[in-house]
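**User:** Hello, beginner here. Are you able to go through the protein record under this note? It all follows right here:
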Amino acid sequence: MGPYFRYILVSYNDTKRGTMLLKCFFLPFVVPLFLLYLRSTVSIVYSKLDLFSRSLCHQSTQLVFMQKRKDELLKKIQEEFNISKWKTAQYISKGYDHDVIILDKKMIFRFPKKGDSIEMLKDEITLLQFLSSHIDAQIPHYTHVSKDKSFAAYPILLGREMRKYRYQTLSKKDKLSFAKQVAQFLNQLHGFDIKKIKKFHVHRQSPQKNIKNLQNNVKKYLFPHFDKKEQICAQKFLQDLQSVVKESEKYFSLIHSDLSEDHILWDEKKKKISILDFSDREIGDRAGDFAGLFVYGPKFVKEVLSQYHFSDDTLFERAKLYFYRCTFFIMVDAYKMKRWDKRLADIIFQSGYKMFLQRFKL
């Protein structure tokens, strides 16, 4: 028997043994494992498809609700002001306090979402009428007010939201002009005698009550989601904040209370600012109006402070603490929102949590 023939015979015998091993060992054990893996994969795919389907259904329901709400608000506008024609109608519902309709990019109609917001809108309208003759920056001037004062409208203010990325593209000259105008606005707003604005029923902050509520909410809603390091960091911050707010009442004035990048407009052509949304106005620590300015960087805040008339030794540090405090407000509010929109609440919570990690460098 030649070597080539012997090689073929051995190979044949090995193949037979391999086939027997396959039948006796491989098939009984491996095939069931493969089928189990296949079943688990199909189950995961089905589960993801089901989740996707539910998400689409949720989004579809939301869209139907939003369209219905938009139609209701447009009908109110038609009936109240006899406005029957428009080319575009944009509906914005993301705000906590108001629904908004923008008609033809010219008129902004604001509809309070809660009963107490209706009363606050009435006071906001009269306060803004008073402020308009004392403040250089453009602010909303209501020209349409419903008979029951449950909603109102003002001509849209020129400019675009001064987001951080937009500020960074400004020339040095424009950055200085922007800082100067913000300082001027704060000088004028904070300069009012508190006694003279009592008639506008402006809410007065309760610093001790507010910090206690925040501490309780952080421990109740956020600590279960924080690791040990994050809990220690939050506790230390809240202690620092508590020591600051004890003395804050001596710095009280009329404040905007939500002076953030989405409420400051910049008109690129005229190089002028406009200030939006006075719905959170209150009598409070003037440092609160500097908190939102930290988004442009500490250097910008110091530039504004250099032209500010009511500065004090601790204002910068208080403003920085209030800037960090925003992250807790976002997360707590998101957690409470879960009752009526879990998906949106989760998105907002994650955004606030990410902000918390970044600002506290965790």
Summary: The radius of gyration is 30 Å.
